[in-house]
Amino acid sequence: MDEREVRDFITDIRAGRLSRRAFTRIMVGLGLTGPLAAQLLAAAGVAAQPKIDSFSPTRRGGGGQLKVLWWQAPTLLNPHFALGTKDQDGSRVFYEPLAAYDPEGNLFPVLAQEIPSLENGGVARDGKSVIWKLKRGVTWHDGKPFTVDDLIFNWEYAADPATAAVTITSYRDLERVEKLDSHTARLVFKNPTPFWFDAFCGARGMIIPKHLFDAYRGAKSREAPANLKPVGTGPYRFVDFKPGDIVRGEINPTYHVPNRPFFDQFEMKGGGDAASAARAVLQTGEYDFAWNLQVADDVLKRLEQGGRGHVDMAIGGAVEHIQLNNTDPWKEVDGERSSLKTTHPFLTEAPVRAALNLLVDRSAIHEEIYGRLGQATPNFLNGPARFRSPNMRWEFNVERANQILDGAGWRRGSDGVRAKDGRRLTLLYQTSINPERQKTQAIVKQACAKAGIEVELKSVVSSVYFSSDVGNPDTYTKFYADIQMYSTGPGAPDPQTFMSNFTTVEIVSKSNKWQGRNIARWRNEEYDRVWKMAESETDPVKRAAQFIRMNDMLIQHVVVIPIVWRNAVAGVSNRLKSTDISGWDSNLWRLAYWYRQS
Amino acid sequence: MSKYFLRQTLILIPVLAGISAVLFTILALAPGDPFEELATNPNVPAEVRMNLRAKFGLDDPIPIRYARWVVAMVRGDWGFSFVSRVNVDTLIMQRLPVTMVVLGSALVLAIVVAVPIGTLSALRPYSLFDQAATTFAFIGFSLPTFFTGLLFILLFSIHLDWLPFIYRADISATGWRWYWEHLRQSIMPVAVLGLFQAASMTRFMRAAVLDVIRLDYVNTARAKGLSEGVTLVKHVVRNALIPVVTLVALQIPGIFGGAIVTEQIFRVPGIGSLLIASILANDTPVVMAVTFVFSCLVLLSNLAADLLYGWLDPRISYR
Question: Min CA distance, B26 vs chain A (Å)?
Fold first, then answer.
């Protein structure tokens, strides 16, 4: 089945000749997942049934206090300066974007009246502009109206390099934000932009009020009093904030969604560790919700037996993977190892790469180590579902790996380690210090030993490994090892930036102070070309096909060996409903709709 | 006396300068930077991180950064946190009261437990009570606070479900409920810290009383017909407390060390947990300020110990 046929189906559905269900069944029959089919339809403007919430309160409030635990506490409440998700989450209690990303990566209107699309004329055919209609009657917590001026201000504020906003990438590609009327804005992009739902959407799209931040642009941004006392549009109003400890809010009596929120007070307590946070929600029920429970699955299962709470998964696109170095980490050229002027002595050989791909026992790693916290995957790009390749398979097969290596002329020596032309098949395998990673290393090492590959393990403390310290040889971007493992994800429901991890321009080297994204130092013109095409492709179906093609190239060339597709885990009280956490947005994207069952 | 005090206070200045120089250098040389989380985020360009580093002066040479810090500190400007962009003194003032309340209560608990038990043990050495007290004291100071803390949580929060194990500084209740809630949540952290201190203090107290009780003036007191109670309180315990007071003052730094761990376990929002969070986030100004506050407290408690000693025992004179 090719692209044209899929399009015909979509036309049929739009005309009512084919049901959504029948289409989904056909797609599933072809090996696509259900959500992927739904995505294809959504992208083509065939709307899904809106999710019906079984709980429909007749008045606001009355729910008492909502207590959530963030074991890494928010340290600042200005979304444009958020250093991590903890800060985005703390800000999200008070600030809102135009639209949030739901668990499938679709848009859910928050401050927008409706979601722009090709059909309603919101998204321009050339992909160079988009029209957002703002919800009317929305006010900031201090009573001032929310209008297009706030949107324009946020764009100017974040795009100004002097502000040093972490959201700069979402806004700097906007040529201008036009005010069509007080509640209609047109965003004009410099280039055709398929990912038009980046600015003002999701965790990076929270909007701050112009009237409180206008005087604090650029270099003065630190001095704004509202950095610590947010005034937003969200379901809760600010009460108190102690950096690193607690965020408190109270119900916003003029919230723009009728009869919401349910709770009267909100409290986000921070600090401590993940395991005891899990315990406080799952076992003792002291708290209602806990974020990011990075705890072994068997521990979580045991705590769940307390019967007070359960874990919930946010499925994003983070993937734990092994990278193969294309350059030689053992030869120094111009004061730099893993230099682009070298090639790896044997890891650039296709049979060696193929063998390694067969030696990673993903199902054992999934079952023994990650459990519900991940799933074995053959793909580097796993989400959103519309970009996931159905073509790839993974296999664990020591025998075949041995055959491949035998066939390529790698002979076993007296110590069982293979060698060719006097070069032994020895690998240095590095990763960060983390119990899951060390167990994974051990499983891979064992399998490699069976295939005559000697693996030396190295683990570096995370604060060094993931740092950008130019003077340190152990950072992951330096990659002074043969293979390395860590986890990375798109972070947004669009893989354009994520897939730039393998483009030639992003290759790290001494000349760019190891600041690029292509750490495996892989070069492929074809890949670069497809990535470039996807950057401005406005047809969602074609673009999805391009990303699937990029993923397949990575897997076929064994540039990376994906291991598990990791979930983010939250602990949820059994009485707390409608949390519906998303892997593409803050855990609190639906905070206004949370309620407690009595 | 006042001359001695002045001299000791003046000595503090070079000591603090030395401490700050060492701390600053170590922190500056340690790997990692406060914007590390941005480095792994694919959506944040490297320029933003570089821009922030430049803006906060992280790229300047260490001596210049240190000089800048000293000058600001002398002027009373503690700088601001790289992570929360809040002034460091604000952050510390938010946290200090909680630490003081928890540490103070722990110290009171330790004294209340240790003084009577130590005294009773010494009055009847090698009795059953003494044996039991000795055993518990040894167990007490052999177990680190992070371990007893976890044991307490397992027992009182999880099995018995009596006490909360998450400390909240802001409790919205009022009146008696406010006190009750605070009491309930403080029991475990205070008990963990207090009993740890009490364990070693009991042993000091016992040794001190044993030393004193054999002395002639105690026999004289008894001989002139004073009741046992008066002898004990006025003549024995009072004199035995002199070395114990000094030891308690010298032990205060140890309590701070224990408090860092205990605050982390029970999520007490004190300066100990602020220190841990800042170390993990490579937030140099806050780490500097908190360790600096800690070293001041240590030096001051040493000074207090010296002065108390002289006040309690007039035979000791200061030169």
Answer: 15
Which residues are within 8 A (CB) of A571 and not within 5 positions of it... i.e. 6 or more apart? A277, A278, A281, A282, A289, A290, A293, A300, A309, A310, A311, A312
Does residue A181 lie within any of the structural domains?
A: yes
A356 found inside a domain: yes
Q: A490 to chain B: nearest residue by CA? A: B42
Q: How many domains does chain A have?
A: 2
Comparing CB atoms, the residue among A242, A273, A464 nearest residue B32 is: A464
Q: Given pLDDT bands bounded at 50, 70 and 90, which one contains residue A5?
A: low
Structural domain that includes position A223 = 65-252+569-596
The verdict on A471 and A482 lying in the same domain is yes
Residues A463 and A391 in one domain: yes
Residues A152 and A187 placed together within one structural domain of the fold: yes
* Three-class DSSP category at A274: helix
Evaluate whether A372 touches A567 at the Cβ level (below 8 Å).
yes
Q: Please name the residue that has the structure tokens 């597709």.
A: A565
Of A526 and A51, the structure prediction assigns the larger pLDDT to A526
Residue of A nearest to B160 (CA): A284
Determine, yes or no, domain membership for A9. no
Predicted confidence (pLDDT) per residue in A497-556, tens digit? 899 999 999 999 988 888 888 999 999 999 999 999 999 898 889 999 999 999 999 999
Is there a single domain that holds both residue A574 and residue A464? no
**Which SS3 state, helix, strand or coil, does residue A310 take?**
strand
Q: How far is B265 from chain A (nearest CA, A)?
A: 6
CA separation for the pair A573, A595 (Å, rounded): 11
Helical spans, DSSP H, in A93-240: 148-159, 168-171, 210-213
For an interface test with A, give the residue of B29, B33, B36 to mutate (most A CBs within 10 A).
B36
Rounded Cα gap, residues B152 and A178, in angstroms? 61
**Are A531 and A585 part of one and the same domain?**
no
Tell me how far apart the alpha carbons of residues A217 and A504 are, in angstroms, rounded to a whole number.
36
Q: Judge whether A424 lies within some domain.
A: yes
Residues of A in Cβ contact (< 8 Å) with B48: 164-166, 168
Q: Name the pairing type of β-strands A411-412 and A576-577.
A: unpaired
Residue B109: is its pLDDT beyond 80?
Answer: yes
| A388 and A450 share one domain | yes
> Quick check: B32 and A467 CB within 8 A?
yes
Q: Which residues of B touch A490 (CB under 8 A)?
A: 42
CATH of the domain at A503: 3.10.105.10
CATH of the domain at A93: 3.40.190.10
CA distance B159 to chain A (A): 9
Residues of chain A found within 8 Å of residue B275, distances taken between Cβ atoms: none
Give CA–CA dist A427/A456, Å, rounded: 6
Instruction: Indicate yes or no: CB of A463 within 8 angstroms of CB of B31.
Output: yes
Q: How far is A87 from chain B (nearest CA, A)?
A: 9
Average the pLDDT over B139-149 and give the result: 87
Which one of A65, A67, A69, A75 would you mutate to disrupt binding with B, by most B Cβ within 10 Å of its Cβ?
A: A75
SS3 label, residue A174: strand
How far, rounded to the nearest angstrom, does the alpha carbon of residue B264 sit from its chain's CA centroid?
A: 14
Residue A355's closest CA among A320, A393, A403, A314?
Answer: A403
- B165 contacts on A by Cβ (under 8 Å): 276, 279-280, 284, 286
Q: Which of B196, A9, B141 is nearest to A1 (CA)?
A: A9
**Interface touch A464/B274, C-beta < 8 Å:** no
Pair A539, A581 in one domain = no
Within 8 A of A73 by CB-CB distance, chain B residues are: 277
Six-digit token string for A501: 């991890």
Same-domain status, A553 and A577: no
